[in-house]
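re: the backbone from monday

yeah here it is again, tokenized this time
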């Protein structure tokens, strides 16, 4: 798996910090949707699915969590524990978000509007799609 983590420049001054993320400059897609999750329960993972065409960019803007990305060949766990660290999750990559701190706010930028049909929720189906078995 290619390097997917980005350490963004912190534009700070005496008033505090600011991080700017721009489509096509810092992330490889146009942003159509923003959502965030917070108030996660201890030991309860989120995600556990892949997307056909949706790409995502994840930032723990507060607190910390781990994200395990699995492209069908490699499975890598990333720690998101700084608001200037971003993680790109490509389409057709199985993602699991876990080990949230109680104060975690996980911001997600996406290149597509929400569409339940874009979700692949069965790991078996994901593996078959990756290996081309469902592509005809
Ligand atoms: C991901 C992790 C971090 C919407 O109505 N619009 C949306 O844009 C999203 C993402 C969800 N929803 C609804 C669908 C469900 O009724 O919100 C509810 C919870 O969504 P979901 O079960 O997909 O939540 P997570 O935390 O398992 O996964 C979500 C994203 O789906 C996923 O892509 O990376 O957050």
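seq for it, each position gets an aa:
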């Amino acid at each position: 798996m290619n390097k997917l983590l980005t350490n963004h420049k912190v534009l700070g001054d005496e008033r505090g910090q600011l991080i700017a993320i721009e489509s096509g400059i810092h992330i490889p897609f146009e942003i159509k949707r923003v959502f965030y999750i917070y108030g996660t329960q201890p030991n309860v993972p989120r995600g556990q699915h892949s997307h056909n065409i949706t790409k995502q960019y994840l930032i723990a803007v507060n607190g910390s969590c781990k994200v395990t990305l699995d492209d069908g060949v490699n499975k890598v766990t990333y720690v998101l524990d700084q608001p200037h660290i971003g993680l790109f999750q490509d389409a057709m990559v199985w993602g699991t978000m876990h080990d949230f701190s109680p104060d975690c706010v996980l911001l997600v930028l996406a290149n597509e509007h929400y569409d339940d049909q874009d979700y692949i929720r069965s790991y078996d189906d994901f593996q078959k799609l990756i290996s081309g078995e469902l592509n005809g």
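The chain has one domain: 5-135. Helices lie at 123-130.
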